[in-house]
Design a protein that fits this description.
Blueprint lengths: L9 H14 L5 E5 L2 H9 L10 E5 L4 H4 L2 H11 L4 E5 L13 H6 L4 E3 L4 H9 L4 E8 L4 H14 L4 E7 L2 H9 L8 E4 L1 H7 L5 H7 L3 E3 L4 H16 L5 E3 L11 H10 E8 L3 E10 L8 H4 L15 H6 L30 H8 L2
Parallel strand pairs: 1-2, 1-7, 3-4, 3-5, 5-6, 7-8, 8-9
Antiparallel strand pairs: 10-11
């Protein structure tokens, strides 16, 4: 058995499910998977159907595109309309609705908007097309932020003056604090994100476990990974202990990637930031350090940040907080579908609504 096969082995999964049913303490238990990739994996492998009665897996704000506030989308659209300006973005951002239209709509109207797979691609474009101004829409958690920081540092070393960043990066742990203090929902345990934890380390969640008494366990993305993490959380709840666990030891350490953390701190500082559906979360966002402010699109271009409410009936905010599951939104699968999305949770490949639509509930 090679590669990922051992983490998808049916007999191993069956054994773990039996173990979970044995140690499950009973009653209502709500575990939140923070990562959008976990949401997709749980739906894809039908893991919700394997849970004991009363154990609910709910989705959280683990989709970077989904939590990006409408003010950033609107600013992106405003920038795209400026002559001589090229918007550079990852694919998921293209179809996210702004207050009036999306980047995809603007591209169809003739705006120069380019989808990339690496931020370094923008540096090469800007080097070749010096008369154009390139703006990267920077969204993401700690997984992708170090790469963006490196590119900003590279732009400085090359002396590029036609490269800018609309920074909307977010930090995971402050969001967990906000969820734990929310009155909307009681969370009994966090299934912590694997990719983010590679960077920040599983030790970063200790403050959550200690302060709120909520178990935090990091998981990988295969069925066995996820089930092992759920078992760990259930066992901690059953024994009335919290603490932090790591069910993704092949990739995640206690301290994480300290070099990646260093480059983030060098380029960015923390600021209070808005999250769609949750609101303002203290020190949950990033802004460029003074040394790199000349790359800040909002400081160079005269484009305001204007937030507007989600479209009428859209409950993306409640989905992101785990208050409801996607099918409980009246628009889900009717007015809001992947081909005609109303909110970002149906657009992104990591969005909860997209996962439920594709794989069912």
């Amino acid at each position: 058995m090679n590669g990922f096969e051992q983490f998808r082995d049916k007999e191993h999964v069956k054994t773990l499910v039996q173990k979970l049913h044995t140690i499950y303490p009973g009653g209502e238990l709500k575990l939140m998977e923070v990562c959008g990739t976990h949401t997709m994996a749980i739906a894809r492998y039908g893991l919700r159907e394997l849970m004991p009665k009363g154990l609910h897996l709910i989705s959280g704000p683990g989709c970077p595109v989904c939590v990006t506030p409408s003010s950033i989308i609107n600013a992106s659209i405003g920038l795209a309309a400026l002559p001589g300006t090229v918007i550079v973005t990852f694919g998921d951002m293209m179809r996210v609705p702004g207050s009036e239209k999306s980047l995809e709509n603007l591209k169809a109207e003739g705006a120069d908007i380019r989808v990339i797979y690496s931020v370094l691609d923008m540096i090469e474009m800007a080097q070749k097309e010096r008369k154009k101004r390139f703006v990267f829409i920077s969204v993401g958690f700690e997984t992708t932020t170090p790469g963006t920081a490196l590119v900003i540092s590279e732009a400085e070393s090359r002396g590029l003056d036609n490269v800018f960043f609309l920074v909307a990066n977010r930090l995971v742990v402050p969001a967990l604090h906000a969820l734990c203090t929310s009155e909307d929902i009681q969370i009994d345990g966090f299934l912590c994100p694997g990719h983010v934890s590679v960077i920040i380390g599983y030790g970063a969640y200790r403050e959550i476990a200690d302060k709120y008494g909520v178990p935090c366990v990091v998981a990988g993305f295969e069925p066995v990974d996820i089930l092992m993490a759920i078992i760990d959380i259930a066992a901690r709840v059953s024994s009335h202990t919290a603490g932090v666990g790591n069910a993704y030891g092949r990739a995640v350490t206690a301290k994480g990637n300290t070099r990646a953390q260093d480059i983030m701190r060098k380029v960015f500082n923390t600021v209070d930031a808005e999250w769609r559906g949750i609101g303002l979360i203290p020190e949950s966002g990033l802004a460029l350090q003074e040394e790199y402010e000349r790359f800040d699109a909002l400081k160079f271009f005269d484009v305001p940040l204007v937030s507007k409410p989600d479209p009428k009936g859209c409950r993306c905010g409640d989905v992101l907080k785990g208050v409801i599951i996607p099918p409980e939104c009246a628009l889900f699968g009717k007015k809001c579908t992947p081909t005609s999305p109303v909110g970002p949770c149906m657009v992104s490949s990591e969005g909860s609504c997209a996962a439920y639509y594709k794989y069912g509930d």
